[in-house]
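Hi C.,

You asked whether I'd gotten around to modeling the 149-residue construct. I have! Everything is below, sequence then structure, no commentary in between.
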Amino acid sequence: MSLRERLIDLARANLNALLDPPERLATARVEELSDQELEAELARRRARRQREAEARERAETAKQAARKRGRRRSSVGGQRIAQLYALLEVPNGSNWPTVKRQFRRLMRQHHPDLHTRDPKHQKTAAKRTASLTAAYQELEQLLGKRDPG
């Protein structure tokens, strides 16, 4: 056992000794305690209850704030993400490999070089691929997805 581990064990043991109530308070009956000891014990319990109530209140406030942020994000960002999924013709909430596979399939299908004989179709295909690329890039940015290589 290293010196560091021994020091940590010693600190834990001393910390537990400090946190444990004194022997007399743990085993004594209320009638046997002095007025000062009773007051000290009541003050300690009040302080503990106060800290617990404050912690519950902070947790509840944090939960409510998270719910508000989630509602705001889902109402505006969620609609936009749903539109992007629809533009890429994948179900809403699809995993990233599915989105990527579908994007590549659509790009192969609508690529302007496939429509060189008809200028009207080539122009339409160019607009379609531009909108698909923009949707893919925006969805990639919103979802925070990046390929590692």
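If it helps when you're writing up: Helices lie at 3-19, 23-27, 35-87, 96-110, 119-143.

Thanks,
B.
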